Amino acid sequence: MTNLLTNTGITDIEWIRSTVDEARSDPVGMWRIVRAGREHFALVNGELEDFVHRFVTEMIKAGAAPVVGDKTAAFGWSPVLKYGDDPASAADALVREWLDSNADPGVDGVWFAFPAVWK
Questions:
Q1: For all residues of the chain together, what is the average pLDDT?
Q2: What is the pTM of this model?
Q3: DSSP states of the chain
């Protein structure tokens, strides 16, 4: 990982760790990850893509899963299985999907949550 700093002095490593911890009780949207990289760390293009990829990889390594809102699910979230279990491959697919859309992720897109939140 790198040592990027926000305007408040938080490193990218600290931000990723605290956000992974947050996802243990509250889903974290892909939209928020992209926005944080762009607005808090002033990243663009390849640096932003790398930040998002590293974040997604760390989130999945920690045990979170990509989920989407689902009103029919018991807790309102359903896992998205198409990304698989391998953190790097899932991150590759999610970043590619984001870039191919030519738009930033929205609140109706993919989020990350630990099983305790959605099971």
A1: 93
A2: 0.92
A3: ----B-TTS-BHHHHHHHHHHHTTTS-EEHHHHHHIIIIIS---HHHHHHHHHHHHHHHHHTT-EEEEE-TTSTTSEEE-GGG-S-HHHHHHHHHHHHHHHTS---TTS-EEE-HHHH-
